[in-house]
Amino acid sequence: MATVGFIGLGNMGGPMAANLVKAGHAVQGFDLSEDAKARLAEAGGTPCGSAADAVSGAEVVVTMLPAGRHVEAVYLGDAQSGEGGLIAAAAKGTLFIDSSTIDVATARKVAAAAEAAGMGMIDAPVSGGVGGAQAGTLTFMVGGPEAAFDQARPFLDRMGKTIVHAGGAGNGQAAKICNNMILGISMIGVSEAFVLAEKLGLDHQKLFDISSTASGQCWSLTTYCPVPGPVPTSPANRDYQAGFTADMMLKDLKLAQDAANSSGANTPLGAEAAQIYGLFAGEGNGGLDFSGVVKFLRGKR
Ligand code: NAD
């Protein structure tokens, strides 16, 4: 069993760290939030006073932070505060696993710095949400060298069910934003179909029964149906309590648009989806589940 440093013990990181404890690893965790650290202690991990303390003596370090700027500051240090980063604090040969969802450019920049310092690093963003983090059934999309992937695999296996190596550094993040762009667009498409069906006097359940077995079939319809009734477990049945918030969908769609702009990819529907989620979240719905966008579409003419 290994000593694992874990930085970022929020909604996702907390249960992921708890699963590593359950697997028998000694988990040393740090978060800016005292509550998050207290939850780690309850789960059997060791809360630490700083990120540097959490990585001291660790063979593997997992980070689960909000966005690219947090990841960059935590790994490379913060010039403003003069605080050093994880790469300087950790022992040579430490394996870094960043599971945050961030932009591809920052993921590649931090991985290059880690490699230059003699560390292995993978970007390993996840899908599956808080439920998947708790159940240990996340999907990991991994970018980085083969050797680092192989070394990380036993740890990822304890936090997830599906683990895919998508290529070199940053490719895990690339896979994540491409996947979530499909999701954001398809949720709007399915929602628009229900809104049109309502206007045409076609029952929700009838549309579901037909489209779920026809060419309109997709995850946004059959697993996460945006209207109440057809899929009892979908957030529509609990007044769009998240789940995966509209704010998070907006974040991922913006990351996809940044990547599209910098790489010259043509993604008009991705751009439109980012606009629609921006308007929906801007009306005070950012904390609602992203499938609540159906309410916004219903309200428009
Ligand atoms: P969260 O806000 O619940 O957790 C982030 C944690 O990081 C917080 O506890 C915060 O205090 C901590 N933190 C911030 N800066 C820090 C620092 N400098 N040092 C130590 N701790 C610091 O967010 P979350 O829902 O756990 O999401 C984490 C990442 O996972 C995000 O990138 C998100 O996009 C991604 N993600 C989330 C979900 C989801 O359903 N929640 C699903 C897939 C991916």
Task: Describe this protein with a few key phrases.
2 domains; 6-stranded parallel beta sheet; 3-stranded mixed beta sheet; alpha/beta; Rossmann fold; single chain; N-(1-d-carboxylethyl)-l-norvaline Dehydrogenase, domain 2; 301 residues; binds nicotinamide-adenine-dinucleotide
Outline the structure in words.
GO terms for molecular function: 3-hydroxyisobutyrate dehydrogenase activity; NAD binding; NADP binding. The protein is α/β, with parallel strands linked by helices. The chain has 2 domains: 3-168, Rossmann fold (3-Layer(aba) Sandwich), CATH 3.40.50.720; 174-298, N-(1-d-carboxylethyl)-l-norvaline Dehydrogenase, domain 2. Helix content is 52%, strand content 13%. The protein has 14 helices and 9 strands. The chain has helices spanning 13-22, 34-43, 51-55, 68-76, 86-89, 104-116, 129-135, 146-159, 171-200, 204-211, 219-222, 246-263, 268-285, 293-299; strands spanning 3-7, 26-30, 46-47, 60-63, 95-98, 120-123, 126-127, 138-143, 160-167. The strands form 2 sheets. It has a 6-stranded parallel β-sheet, with helices on both faces. A 3-stranded mixed β-sheet has the order 7-8-9. Strand 1 (3-7), helix 1 and strand 2 form a beta-alpha-beta unit. Helix 12 packs antiparallel against helix 13 (268-285). The radius of gyration is 20 Å and the shape is elongated. The structure holds nicotinamide-adenine-dinucleotide. Nicotinamide-adenine-dinucleotide (NAD) is lined by residues 7-13, 30-33, 36, 51, 64-66, 70, 74, 100-101, 126-127, 129-130, 244, 248.
